[in-house]
């Protein structure tokens, strides 16, 4: 009898202690923070100096000191290297090495394009122009594996991978464009391309632990989110993480975001990441019209940016399925010669002085 009791106690202890595993899903209310640091290397290559309270410090280290534990890096197929369109494989590996050395986990964002890919544009790489659909699909798979094998060989294998960037309107246009001018949608084509990317991940060396994210810019819309992710299920796309973009001037109010997260959490058996967000601090804000909504939750000031970030994190922590949030391009400075524009959403001023928002997610 004593042996049985002892065995049960040991088993209970082991099961409880196992909850501290780094692979365990974070506890309810636990939120991890990341940034899209895709151009921090270029900023520093052009002489950027990041400062907190007047003291210069390594850029990625500043974010690490303020509770950022994930680094998101985009990768273009064959970028021209001008301005922010610089993220080729060599650059990405070098960026990831720096991040890994500081203890960051890596989210690799495949654009499957030579330049920016988002809901309004998804350019097929020049190397893949005029390919048949079958060859294009094979190219996606082979390229994905090649990139990950190179990262594995360099010791910077990502923990998470995005198959495309903001692909709610498709990817690899024109063949992978989702919506036609008549309003019909070719979900089979899009699903086939996504599956090719996923297969490419699975065929890479030592890739079994990589989490797969599917990213749509539908943060404020229940209808768009439901349509897109229901179709992913219908067409048998196998992935782990629902990735959303949310910028208030494009995607609606914080209440709309919350309602969407409520719906997605119940409708889909997936973890969720708010993989892109940002807020203005320099006094400028998009005027309503076109794609811009009449939504301004806070003034576009240093304090308003901080308040937005604090309120957003509070909202996200109320949703158990939401595991992470990433700030988009928090590292931008105004560096002559870099050809990277300062848009006013950075967490630093033009000269590299940290705003109050740098500490908005620094939970103690």
Structure description:
The chain contains ten helices and twelve strands. It has 364 residues and is an alpha/beta fold. The protein has a single domain (32-359), classed as TIM Barrel (Alpha-Beta Barrel), CATH 3.20.20.80. It has an eight-stranded parallel β-barrel with strand order 1-4-5-8-9-10-11-12, surrounded by five helices. β4 (68-75), α4 (89-101) and β5 (105-110) form a beta-alpha-beta unit. α5 packs parallel to α6 (187-203).
Order of helices and strands: HEHEEHEHEEEHEHEHEHHEHE
Name the helicity range: 25-40%
- What would the principal axes of the Cα set say about the shape? globular
Q: Write down the overall mean pLDDT.
A: 92
Tell me the β content.
15-25%
Low-confidence stretches: 1-28
Oligomeric status:
single chain
Q: Largest beta sheet: what is the strand line-up? A: 1-4-5-8-9-10-11-12
The CATH homologous superfamily: Glycosidases
DSSP, total strands: 12
What can be said about this structure in brief?
The chain has 364 residues and is of the alpha/beta class. Helices cover 35% and strands 16% of the residues.
